[in-house]
C-alpha cells in the first residue's frame, strides 16, 4: 500500500514542471478565453453599436486573465470590472500628439525630463501610477511581452478567418 | 610614494567595480566634475562622498595614471566611501603638478562653501587614492552620509539593470543611449502595441459575425509550436520563433498572413515551415507602425 502511495505521489509531480514555456501558456490561455467569449458575443448581441467596445472589452479581459501572475493584470481586471463601459487602453489620437510633442521638446532639466517620461510610461501601464518606478520598470517588460503575444494571437485569429 | 602605491593597489583589490554604463550616461559632465570632485576630496574628511567621474580622454579604463591629489591624511578610513576615478600614468609628473595647481585654486574657491570639516593640512602629504574602475555616483552638495549615497548607488544600479533588460525587449533601443532616449523608445513601442491591439480588436468586431471559430482550435496548436520562452520576470528574449520542428497543415495560410502583415522579413525565402513564424521583433515593430497606420485608414 505504501509503495502504491509513494508511486502515486511520484506521479503527481512532473519531472520538469516548467517545461511549457510561459509564452505558450499565455497564448493558450488567451485564445481559450477569447474565442468562446467572442462566440458568445456573436450569438447574444443584436445591435452592432456596442460591438466594437464590447469586443475590446473582451480582448482586454482575456489579456488580464491570461497573465494573472503580473501586477498590472490585477489593475486591468479592476478597471474592467468596475466600469460598465469598457475602457480603452489607448486613444490613438492623443498618443500621436504626445509623440510629436516629445520629439520637439528639448532642453530643460534632464532629470525632470526623465521623470516626466517615467510618468508617461506609468500612465500607459495599467496600474502603473500606483507603483513605484523600479517596480514599474519590471512590470513594463512583462506587459510588453504580453502585448506582443496578444497582437500575434489577434492577428492570427483575424487572418485565419478571412 | 611607494607606500601610496601599495595602498592604491590594496584599494584597487578591495574595490573593483566598473559600471561603464554610468560613463555613457554621464558623459558630458566629466570635466566639470573633475574639478568639483577634486575640491570635495580635498576638503571633506569624514564625509566622504562618492564621486562620479568620467574620463573623456580615452574612455580607456585600463590605463593607469597618478594624479597627485591633495588628500587628507584620513584617506584610509574614508576610503570605503570615497571613490575616486582617475587615470594613472606614471611619469607624467608635469601634468600632475598642473592638475595639482588647478586643484589648489578650485579648492580655495570652494573651501568656504564646503560642508563638513575641512582638514586641509598639507597639500604635499596627499596620498593617492585615485583608483580606477569604480562605480561612481554623483556627489551632490549636502548629500549627507555614506549610507545615503550607497543606497542611492544601489538604487541606480537596480534601475540601470532594469533598463538594460528593457533594452533587450524593445527593439531599436540599442541605437539610443541614455535613459531619456530609451524611455522614449519604450513609450513609443508600448503605444504602438496598444494601438495595434485596438485596431485588431476593431477588425475583429467587424468580422465577428462571419467568423468561423472552429479554425481557431487549430491555431492554438500552432501557437504551441511557435513561441519561445516568456520569462516571468523582465524578459530578455526577442521574438524569434522557430517552427521548423512542427509541420502543420494550416501553417501555410498563417505564413502568408504573417508575411503580409510583416512586410520586411528577414525570412526572405518562401520556405514555409521555418520562415513562417520567424518573427523578428525589429521587423514586427517596424511593421506594426506602418501596418497599423495604413490599414487603419483602409478600414475607414
UniProtKB/TrEMBL annotation, chain A:
Q: Reply yes or no: does the keyword Cytoplasm apply.
A: no
Source taxon at top rank: Eukaryota
Which interval of the chain is the signal sequence?
none
Q: Has keyword S-adenosyl-L-methionine?
A: no
Keywords attached to this entry:
Nucleus, Transcription, Transcription regulation
Q: Where do Low complexity bias regions lie?
A: 81-95
Q: What is this protein called?
A: IBH1-like N-terminal domain-containing protein
Quote the subcellular location field of this record: Nucleus
Please name the InterPro entries in this protein's record. Answer: bHLH_AtIBH1-like, IBH1-like, IBH1_N
The record's section on Pfam families has: IBH1_N
Domain IBH1-like N-terminal: start-end pairs: 24-83
Tell me, what is an example of a GO biological process annotation in this record? Answer: regulation of DNA-templated transcription
One GO cellular component term of this record is: nucleus
UniProtKB/TrEMBL annotation, chain B:
Biased composition regions of type Basic and acidic residues, renumbered to the chain: 90-107
Instruction: Indicate whether Transcription appears among the record's keywords.
Output: yes
GO MF term list? DNA binding; DNA-binding transcription factor activity; protein dimerization activity
Q: What is its main location?
A: nucleus
Q: Where is the BHLH domain?
A: 143-193
Disordered: region residues: 73-130
Q: Name its cellular compartments.
A: Nucleus
Record's GO cellular component, any one? nucleus
Alphabetical UniProt keywords = DNA-binding, Nucleus, Transcription, Transcription regulation
Q: Which domain of life is it from?
A: Eukaryota
Q: Where is the composition biased (Low complexity)?
A: 113-124
Question: What is the protein name given in its UniProt record?
Answer: BHLH domain-containing protein
Amino acid at each position: 500500500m505504501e509503495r502504491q502511495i509513494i508511486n502515486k505521489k511520484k506521479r503527481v509531480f512532473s519531472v520538469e514542471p516548467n517545461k511549457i514555456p510561459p509564452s505558450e501558456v499565455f497564448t493558450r490561455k488567451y485564445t481559450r478565453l477569447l474565442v468562446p467569449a467572442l462566440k458568445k458575443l456573436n450569438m447574444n448581441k443584436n445591435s452592432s453599436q456596442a460591438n466594437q467596445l464590447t469586443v475590446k472589452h473582451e480582448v482586454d479581459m482575456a489579456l488580464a486573465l491570461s497573465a494573472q501572475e503580473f501586477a498590472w493584470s490585477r489593475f486591468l481586471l479592476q478597471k474592467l470590472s468596475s466600469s460598465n463601459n469598457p475602457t480603452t487602453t489607448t486613444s490613438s489620437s492623443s498618443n500621436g500628439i504626445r509623440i510629436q510633442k516629445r520629439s520637439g521638446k528639448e532642453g530643460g532639466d534632464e532629470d525632470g525630463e526623465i521623470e516626466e517620461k517615467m510618468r508617461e510610461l506609468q500612465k500607459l501601464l495599467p496600474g502603473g501610477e500606483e507603483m513605484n518606478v523600479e517596480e514599474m520598470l519590471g512590470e513594463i517588460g512583462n506587459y510588453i511581452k504580453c502585448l506582443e503575444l496578444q497582437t500575434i494571437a489577434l492577428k492570427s485569429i483575424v487572418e485565419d478567418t478571412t | 610614494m611607494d607606500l601610496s602605491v601599495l595602498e592604491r593597489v590594496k584599494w584597487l583589490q578591495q574595490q573593483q567595480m566598473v559600471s561603464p554604463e554610468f560613463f555613457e550616461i554621464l558623459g558630458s559632465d566629466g570635466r566639470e566634475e573633475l574639478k568639483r570632485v577634486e575640491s570635495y576630496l580635498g576638503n571633506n574628511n569624514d564625509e566622504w562622498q562618492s564621486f562620479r567621474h568620467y574620463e573623456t580622454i580615452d574612455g580607456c579604463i585600463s590605463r593607469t595614471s597618478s594624479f597627485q591629489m591633495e588628500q587628507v591624511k584620513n584617506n584610509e578610513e574614508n576610503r570605503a566611501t570615497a571613490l575616486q576615478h582617475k587615470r594613472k600614468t606614471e611619469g607624467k609628473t608635469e601634468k600632475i603638478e598642473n592638475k595639482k595647481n588647478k586643484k589648489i585654486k578650485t579648492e580655495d574657491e570652494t573651501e568656504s562653501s564646503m560642508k563638513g570639516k575641512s582638514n586641509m593640512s598639507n597639500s604635499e602629504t596627499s596620498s593617492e587614492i585615485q583608483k580606477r574602475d569604480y562605480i561612481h555616483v554623483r556627489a551632490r552638495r549636502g548629500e549627507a552620509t555614506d549610507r545615503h549615497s550607497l543606497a542611492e548607488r544601489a538604487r541606480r544600479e537596480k534601475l540601470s539593470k532594469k533598463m538594460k533588460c528593457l533594452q533587450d525587449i524593445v527593439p531599436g533601443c540599442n541605437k539610443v543611449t541614455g535613459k531619456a532616449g530609451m524611455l522614449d523608445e519604450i513609450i513609443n513601442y508600448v503605444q504602438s502595441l496598444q494601438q495595434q491591439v485596438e485596431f485588431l480588436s476593431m477588425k475583429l468586431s467587424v468580422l465577428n459575425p462571419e467568423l468561423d471559430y472552429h479554425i481557431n482550435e487549430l491555431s492554438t496548436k500552432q501557437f504551441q509550436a511557435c513561441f519561445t520562452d516568456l520569462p516571468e520576470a523582465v524578459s530578455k528574449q526577442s521574438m524569434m520563433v522557430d517552427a521548423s520542428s512542427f509541420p502543420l497543415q494550416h501553417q501555410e495560410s498563417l505564413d502568408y498572413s504573417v508575411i503580409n502583415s510583416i512586410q520586411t522579413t528577414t525570412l526572405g525565402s518562401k520556405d514555409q515551415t521555418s520562415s513562417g513564424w520567424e518573427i523578428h521583433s525589429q521587423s514586427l515593430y517596424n511593421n506594426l507602425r506602418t501596418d497599423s497606420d495604413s490599414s487603419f485608414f483602409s478600414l475607414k
